[in-house]
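Record format v2
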Amino acid sequence: MLKIENLYYKTQKFSLSDINFTIEKGEYFVLLGPSAAGKTTLVECIGGIRKISSGRIELSEKDITDSGPETRNIGYLPQNCLLFPNMDVRANIQFGLLVRGYSRNNIEKRTNEIARMLDIEYLLDRSIKKLSGGEKQRVALARAIITNPSLVILDEPFSSVDVGLRLTLWFEVKELLKKLNVPVIHITHNIEEASALGDTVAVIIDGQIENISEPQKFFAALRSEKHARFLGISNIYEGIAADSSPGGFAEITVGENLKIKTRIPANITSREVKVCVRPQDIKILREGEPIKTELKENVFEGVIESECFYGDMCGIRVNCGLMFELRFPAYIHKRHALSREKKIKIALWQPSIVVFQNYQKIADDTPK
Amino acid sequence: MRNKFFFAAIISASAFLTFFFLILLYSLSAGITEPSEINLGSLWFSARLSLVTATISAFMAILVALPAAYAFSRYNFPLKGLFSAMLYLPFVVSPVTLGTALLIFFNTPMGSFIERNLIEFVFEVPGIIAAQFAVIAGMATILLKSVFDFIDPQYEHLARTLGADRVQVFFRVLLPMTKNGILSVFLLVWARALGEFGAAVMLAGATPFKTDTLPIAVFLRISEADITNASLIAVVTVIIGFLVMYFSAKLYAKNREPIL
């Protein structure tokens, strides 16, 4: 088990603050965040490469806060694999055992076991210069896990792998690491990768953990506009809540005079709020069809201003006095016979509407 | 038109430089006018002395420069900028000045103690080595630092997470990854030590068949108006230097190849 308590790390340019989480044995923990959010810095702190300013790191019930990286027993797969260029595949894999003073027999035995497990026996005597992206990945993973680590860290492991191979590797790697029954931290900026792989997903932005949840729930716990934007939510509006009583329903005025009715979260203390809705959570309504209860409260009429297709998905922008972006499977476009300039009715899926405090607005309005 | 002019300009400059050095080389070989007066014994002594002293001083410089360059490349420490500037001293100060500094040092109580009880440097062969070391040690550190700078420290971090301590990281990861660069720096400083004259002549003097390295021998022959032997020694020095530079450049280029 890995336990991080009140971890702080500060440099002149960047800081990680108040990091707390626990990863159980066998848990696949994904650390999701945009570039420069502090993902790699955090795992470097856990790996002992960076010395933390304060806090506590516990691994397998041992306090490792002040231990050197060589004694923490962590298997680390860095970005771009970083295979040692002066060694062949076998020497790369064996490095960890060699520096720990294992006997030659044990090293060879363990190398063959790991190579069989990862299906890379045929690569053992090759130069690393002749490996493909996927092969490099497997060799770097073999090197990371050959020492029976107590924690495995994968830093953007699929960034240099072709898209076609990536999906296969996602599941292969997860299945393999599950067998080791150790905590795993997987860093990525790819939302699909995080959803597909994580037992738990932590979103990190600007050196702070915004949210830790199951992958299906990480859209529901938005805490800031940056958080929402990183998760691909483009419909974010400033608004004023008519009734700021927390926990109850209220009408929020956004844009010129558009009213959105939704539940106000308990932590909202001021009328200045931001409202956001995922493009996937806005539905197109058809005349004459019954409307679900969750959609009834927020029905708007507007004109399609633009549309675009990406793969088997389609996106449109609808002007209802406020611009809403919608995203749906491409066949929906045909079913509704959508086109530019067409007038349509849309509805927001109320349970998915997220409201959070507009701290920026409050700060701007506060007399200095 | 402008492109043609630019192309002509770079070709002309390169041709001029090649021609300039060929003329110098030709002038040296043209100085060997009296083959009957060639003194191979003296040439052999100077060549052997130069090779031995340059090899020892280059080894010593690399030995000291390796850890120092590693420290400069990977760590921040107080007064780093000041120490770093001091490494460039031999580039700014003339070798004669460095030799004078060494000569004065060996007249201080500490220097005299070393002279009396450990090794004699003044007007002796160890003086040549000390002078060469003084000229090349800073240069070796600066060049090795740039070799280490080229290696991503992530390799060292990774090796440590795999269980290697700092010593193992240095010897098992960093040194093997930079061996071509280190060899290239060794050859460069060795060549510089081979051609060292000013500091060596100040500290070790110019005694024939004792402290006359190749450049000192050229100076001695010229002062005796023996142009044939001076030119011969100079040509031999140029050939050695050319070969060393050629292989050094090749090794350096190999070290700079993309790693993956």
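The radius of gyration of chain B is 22 Å.
Chain B touches chain A at residues 152, 154-155, 157-165, 168, 172-173, 176-177, 179, 259-260 (CB under 8 Å).
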